[in-house]
Write a structure and sequence with these properties.
three-stranded antiparallel beta sheet, five-stranded parallel beta sheet, Helicase, Ruva Protein, domain 3, alpha/beta, 3 domains, 14% strand
Length: 495
């Protein structure tokens, strides 16, 4: 595209201006017809949130995204500039991106009046047409809209009612673009009132002086339903002026959650040639979030952010990376025992109700991981209890091996060879895994040993084996033997 440098050149090229909402609508229509991806990186919203966003843009609406934390609201609003034209012309030096054909600030109007077709213009990229503000209780009208600058008034000898004394806020500076306010309920009610004119009449007024500047702007908001009662509220007249309220949600399936986590997590590591995470471990990480969202100990109003699964998988890989650095191996392959390295990534991201606080956040987190292991175990293996009732011998060889006072200990710093050798001690364990998880372990020999540990942990979560977890490792043993030894120790203490 040839970029004009003066107003006269722009006219000769036949350039026509559009409102921001018309611009977004036209580009959306073009993308829909071309079959383009509308919101790159947004997963799981194709049939729910994205159609509502399209409707809002097609309807020329300002809108609000309403949803719990970690549902991609900020990511969505930051992708909206893709619906703007790549470049638009503005009056050169304009503070509020004045259109060359319809300037609204006094400085731009005077410049066009003085120079006419020779008035210089510059081109603004769409990435520079997006403004964003996190709503906090200390945000003022001056921050958002602007205020009178007494220094300008004194130095230029201007009356306070003169437009030249205005120091524009972030919203006027986002003129002819998109402005987003995150966490709207945190904005003081009196400040929300100041948005009325911008939402309805599309103009601003400073300090009550008779200066009105019409704006061409799209305003979008985000809010968390929890905030309506805990920290603030959106005043009704402002809600009435917002065209569409679009509700977001957490991933509806484990696969969608895994896609998001894989996309957002930092998984490439310099310490090894490759990072290989078994699918069932990724499923367990996602299932922890599902269990947390359904847990009686977790505050459902607060929600469980997708960030929890992202940081959990990063910690899982990092624990395996630390082991690789110590052992000198080449591949980073996380193990089931590495799941407990994710505890610090989980405890800070779940809000507990009173009963959960009594249990303790670490105990609640460990219980969530255990439930997740049990749920994913049921996807690959037969139900141990049902198998016993049917007198099937699916797990008999493995469980009976531990009854002969046998146990295994998996040290956190074991290399791959020692780790697998320890697991291979358990009679029938490898054949059990091959029968139940052949498709999951065929692509990597290292996955076989991890799957064997997964089988043991699943049997523990189904009360078939005993397990002890220490900082340095994990050990498995017979359930009854552990119970009796505990009773014997209690008797000795009593004696």
């Amino acid at each position: 595209m040839i970029k004009a440098k003066t107003l006269g050149e722009l006219k000769s090229f036949g350039y026509k201006t559009k409102t921001v909402k018309q611009e977004m609508r036209d580009n959306l229509v073009r993308k829909l017809k071309a079959g383009e991806t509308l919101f790159p990186g947004i997963i799981g919203y194709d049939d729910t949130v994205i159609p509502s966003l399209c409707n809002a843009i097609l309807s020329f609406h300002d809108f609000i995204l309403l949803g719990l934390r970690g549902q991609g609201k900020t990511k969505i609003i930051r992708s909206l500039p893709h619906f703007l034209d790549e470049y638009i012309p503005i009056i050169k030096g304009s503070e509020i991106n004045d259109s060359p054909f319809h300037p609204v600030s006094k400085a731009a109007v005077d410049l066009v009046r003085e120079y006419g077709d020779d008035a210089e213009i510059e081109w603004l990229h769409r990435d520079d047409r997006f403004g964003e503000k996190l709503a906090t209780p200390d945000v003022t009208i001056a921050d958002l809209i602007g205020d009178v600058d007494p220094i300008k008034a004194a130095s230029q000898r201007l009356h306070y009612a003169h437009e030249g004394v205005i120091h524009f806020g972030i919203i006027p500076r986002s003129n002819r673009g998109i402005f987003a306010i995150n966490e709207l309920p945190d904005l003081q009610p009196r400040i929300q009132v100041g948005l009325f004119n911008i939402m309805q009449e599309k103009d601003i007024q400073i300090r009550g002086f008779p200066i009105r500047i019409p704006l061409d702007i799209v305003i979008v908001y985000t809010a968390n339903p929890e905030d309506y009662t805990n920290r603030g509220s959106i005043i009704t007249p402002l809600k009435d002026r917002i065209g569409s309220q679009i509700t977001t949600h957490y991933p509806r399936t484990l696969q969608e959650g895994m896609q998001i986590t894989r996309q957002e997590a930092r998984q490439d590591r310099e310490a090894a040639s490759s990072v290989k995470v078994p699918t069932f471990l990724r499923e367990i990480i996602e299932q922890v979030a599902v269990e947390a969202r359904n847990s009686e100990f977790v505050d459902h109003k607060s929600g469980v952010s997708v960030r929890m699964t992202v940081t959990s998988i990063e910690n899982l890989i990092s624990n395996a990376e630390r082991r690789v650095i110590l052992t000198g191996e080449k591949e980073i392959v996380p193990r089931v025992s590495d799941l407990y390295a994710a505890v610090p990534a989980i405890t800070g991201k779940i809000e507990l109700v009173y009963e959960g606080e009594q249990e303790g956040e670490t105990n609640v987190t460990l219980a969530l991981i255990g439930k997740a292991v049990r749920t994913v175990f049921a996807k690959y293996f037969k139900d141990p209890l049902a198998s016993m009732k049917k007198q099937e011998k699916t797990y008999a060889q493995v469980v009976n091996w531990f009854k002969n006072n046998h146990s295994i200990k998996l040290d956190d710093q074991m290399n791959g060879q020692a780790y697998r050798a320890e697991l291979e001690k358990v009679s029938g364990l490898e054949s059990l895994v091959e029968q139940s998880m052949n498709g999951e372990i065929a692509d990597a020999d290292a996955f076989r040993a991890v799957a064997m540990e997964f089988a043991l942990d699943g049997l523990h979560q189904n009360s078939m084996l005993s397990k002890e977890t220490a900082y340095a490792g994990t050990s498995y043993s017979d359930m009854l033997s552990t119970m009796f030894s505990t009773l014997d120790e209690d008797d000795e203490d009593y004696a």
